[in-house]
Amino acid sequence: MASASGLFQCSDPKTWKRVSDMYWEVVAAKGAKQKKLLELDRWYQEELPALIGARPHKSLTSEEMVKLMEWKLTRGKFRPRLKQLVSSNAASTVESCTRKAFQLLPDVSAAIEELCQLKGIGPATASASEEAWTPHRVELCLWTWKVAEKHCPELLESLGDEKERPAKKLKTKQ
Q1: Which domain of life is it from (predicted)?
Q2: Domain ranges within the chain, ordered by starting residue
Q3: pTM of the entire structure?
């Protein structure tokens, strides 16, 4: 079975799309052991964007930022100190930093830099958003691949030889 770097080396857009389409199956497979993951992931992928979009000035509340960190820690490596650090940010600071970060978009680097001023927030958490083939969607595919290797490798088997093709330029939609 190839590693996540094997997917990263793959230049076939169809393979990336198929891995992307497996996302919820893989979350469910991993969530069988971590019950909270499916609930948090649905909140992050579906509810949170709607909440943010409904606000006149896009921002996150302190509670949403803490829940975002909980999602991140449930999905990846557990680091208990991070949730405590994120919780220690003043609600007004979270709202003003996140509002400014949204205003800085599409300058992703500047937005990430703004968010990294918050305690417990680094580039990985700060970059968790966007649509189409963005760094976030690429990250979701790589996470899907890596977790599928451990929890449901049969899903990757269905990709067949596509994942082993030599590198070609990856076409993306912008």
Answers
A1: Eukaryota
A2: 13-159
A3: 0.71
